[in-house]
């Protein structure tokens, strides 16, 4: 998949230690496997990749990379262990590209530096895949910084 | 009283208290449970000042709170807030009172049409408004003079609290029966306001700790379906928006009042890695910490409570006994525990009762899990 990266975003990638080739590979893997989120009312996709230590997300349209973000907290699974009925509308703006289910905004357990706590995730109820939004990644960055300072 | 008139804070105490305060959030071992009696205008009484003086002088208020924290050996965090936030920004009149927090006397929303026409202020407008100007004066003083006791707190309350600071509570309750869709609209606007207030704090300080939850929306005043519709659901939506806009990470769910019939729904409220849940009462009784830990202990930090009526009017022995029971049940909660009061420490509570609360944590709150 040939994807355009603006100079501005390219600079942001460099500033944050992301390699363009890694992001392109991440997108290619998501396109091949179908493990990605599609916007319910548009042509924007979120793909994810990385390792236990860093989860990286690429947000892209069919021809352009729009954003890249990451978090260090490792998602373990649903908080409470099960996808129970809840009393509010938890449907997100995203759908799982693989199964078509609407991704739900649910609490997921996240672990970092030996500490496990909940955080707001995007959950495919069928495929058991977990994602976070760019805004939540910003919130998690603050949380990670606090854990790094206090657990050091 | 200017800063120079206070004795210096003992840095050894501050380091130790900071360590105790860290434990519930990041599982870092320390000796015992930390205590947070939610000290606000009670600090003023220790300096022979009244609540009116406290709230009219936010910089001094923070100094008094921080020094009260040292005096009592409790959570080293400078608080400044009161319940009737956010009315003035939208045209409400507020009355400063000698012996209680400021109270709204005239609200901007009087009719159903007012609800429809009501426009939520944006982040810049809120930042320049009277509520945050005063609030940030307190927080800025804390950051400058007590940097290790600073937390970027935003006092929100829940959607029903914000709504009833905009419209009279009797009108809102009448509309809940006659025009519930109108209250839905009001709560959506309250939620949008909460998001903007959190963004304002996050932009100013780089992080935000929101105090939200459900106080008016409790079993004392509303049925479970009403609490769900006008409290839990719009609050949850607002908290999600806050987290999705990067304006976290702290969430403090303050469920004051009786939550016997609705507390379980809050298990699924949006949470961040720094979430705390405090529930005041189970019927007429203090909410048992054993029940709190059973339902929330594997999710977030639990805040066990001692009845504020006891803190205000009980004997030290009664306070000690209830605190002992609560701290024993909560200290080894899997995701952290704090002992405190069901709501704000009453302004004129006897200091010996606050001391009894802390003493119980020292005597019975030693950690076994580390």
UniProtKB/TrEMBL annotation, chain A:
Q: Which Pfam families match?
A: DUF7479
The UniProt record lists the DUF7479 domain at: 93-150
- InterPro entries reported for this sequence: DUF7479
**Native organism:** Methanolobus profundi
Q: What is this protein called in UniProt?
A: DUF7479 domain-containing protein
UniProtKB/TrEMBL annotation, chain B:
Q: Which Pfam families match?
A: URO-D
Gene Ontology molecular function, alphabetical: uroporphyrinogen decarboxylase activity
* Uroporphyrinogen decarboxylase (URO-D) domain ranges (all copies): 53-363
Which is a GO BP term held by this UniProt record? porphyrin-containing compound biosynthetic process
Q: Which SUPFAM superfamilies match?
A: UROD/MetE-like
Q: What is this protein called?
A: Uroporphyrinogen decarboxylase
User: What species is given as this protein's source?
Assistant: Methanolobus profundi
